[in-house]
Design brief:
5 strands, alpha/beta, 5-stranded mixed sheet, single chain
């Protein structure tokens, strides 16, 4: 199965949600990379819902690294939600993603984003 990307609209212009489904491998990685490169420069928070992502290869990890770098250049962040155990294990092994960027649900993610916004308001 190849990679399917669904864009999920956000109520905020600086936030984007992507639902990833399938495999992020040598075939799927360029698809995600192309989307990130063409994404709106106003996006500061990119949330990847990985509930239906079954597999990540080294090509997929490179795209995540490039995406994190791109978001950092925008003074933003790339966050991961609903990561499958087998994908999280890959993250843990290669230390590709900080644990603070992985969330088990949208509720947990929203609580984190709310606390970050409160800190910046203080």
């Amino acid at each position: 199965m190849s990679l399917n990307i669904q864009f999920q609209p956000s109520d905020k212009l600086d936030k984007a949600y992507l639902i990833l489904e399938g495999q992020l491998d040598a075939i799927g990685a360029p698809i995600l990379e192309q989307w990130m490169n063409k994404s709106n420069v106003n996006i500061k928070t990119l949330v990847l819902n990985m509930r239906d992502l079954d597999f990540v290869s080294s090509a997929g990890l490179r795209v995540f690294a490039k995406g994190q770098k791109l978001m950092k250049q925008r003074n933003g962040q790339m966050l991961f939600v609903n990561v499958q155990p087998q994908v999280k294990k890959v993250f843990d092994i290669v230390k590709a993603v900080r644990i603070s960027e992985i969330f088990t649900s949208y509720e947990e993610l929203d609580a984190y984003l709310e606390s970050m916004q409160r800190e910046s308001d203080d």
